[in-house]
């Protein structure tokens, strides 16, 4: 049950919190997202089981003008690498582990900032305990992607330790003028 809750929390952070935390503003109202569920209700009777396919899509979120200025930003990605992240999801050729899905999301996040000279990103991974995978570096530094690619699921889940490390990484940063975010 703990692992399921950790997975749900990590997925919520990646899917819902990441854009808000990274931009420090709410998503504008003109962004339209859709979720399409395909299943014929007449196909299934009481007690029957079946597969319901969900297709979720959204529009690209543009950085607001307030983030395109010269203000320095420091972001720490906190990534769950507990054993449950090895669980596979999806069917057929769309089958991926939770870890693979998380890695893809983290790499996409880093790539969104790769052309910004005022954004530094650090990585904290956690399983049984948290550890700093990468200190704060410019988002264009390819070593961040290599560190993401090297993450492997293992052991128990200690989300609090990961969040504490991220907090202290930002608190101890030498750039006191930077806006700081934990994602």
Walkthrough of the structure:
The chain has 183 residues and is α/β, with parallel strands linked by helices. Helices cover 32% and strands 25% of the residues. The protein is built from four helices and eight strands. The chain has helices at 2-23, 98-112, 143-150, 159-171, and strands at 33-38, 53-58, 73-80, 88-89, 96-97, 119-126, 130-138, 179-182. The strands form three sheets. The chain has a four-stranded mixed beta sheet, with helices on both faces. Strands 1-2 form a two-stranded antiparallel sheet. A two-stranded antiparallel ribbon has the order 4-5. The longest helix is centred in the N-terminal third of the chain and has 22 residues, at 2-23.
Ranges where pLDDT stays below 50 over 5 or more residues in a row are 16-33
Helices and strands: which structural class? alpha/beta
The helicity comes to 25-40%
Roughly what fraction of the amino acids lie in strands?
15-25%
| Strand count | 8
**Mean pLDDT across all residues, rounded?**
79
Amino-to-carboxy terminus distance:
23 Å
Largest sheet: 4 strands, mixed
Supply Rg. 18 Å
The secondary-structure element order is: HEEEEEHEEHHE
Major β-sheet strand ordering: 7-6-3-8
Number of contiguous helices: 4
Overall geometric form: globular
